[in-house]
Amino acid sequence: MFIAVVLHFKSVEHIKLQKKYGKKRGIRFGKIFGAVSGTMEFVFLIGLWISPQPKFAVPIFSNFAFSVVDISIPLLSLVVSLSLVIPGAWIAIWAVRATGLEVAETHCTPTKLTTLGAYLIVRHPQYLGWILAHIGMSILFSVSYSMLFTPVLIALIYLISKKEEQELIKEFGKEYENYTKRVPMLIPRL
User: Fold this and answer.
1) Which domain holds residue 135?
2) Which residues pair with 66 in a beta bridge?
3) Residue 49 within a domain
């Protein structure tokens, strides 16, 4: 995960990569770093969710469970996890639709600053969705290490978000700075 974060940082340094390698190659390297880091982050989390580890149990309604592929899932865990995973996935997909798949997956420079849709709620809706989905999946599989990793994941997402914002200020200047004053980073306002 930490290697993926370093690559993620590199992928958003659009101006630096283009100065170092030329415009075309810099864009290509940024897209490669973005695609590789995103894939590594995704694979890491799936591995974390399904790896053998101590399970935690919520004593309420623990007798009500069902099995899927030899995995026992308490009904309460299913309900709580779906209440996090579904909104998390919805927010992330809503954000990808607003920016386009290429920008979302490869971290390439957007042609214009997106401030509508999910980007009216928070500046990094994909990461908000990622956090919600991670917590939901950790609850679904009742995996202790995954839940313990949550604060680390949130810290990494915060650092990634700060890095992306530094680069977006370089690319969009005052327009992005004004946007940061109107919309919160990761936690929506009530």
Assistant:
1) 54-182
2) 73
3) no
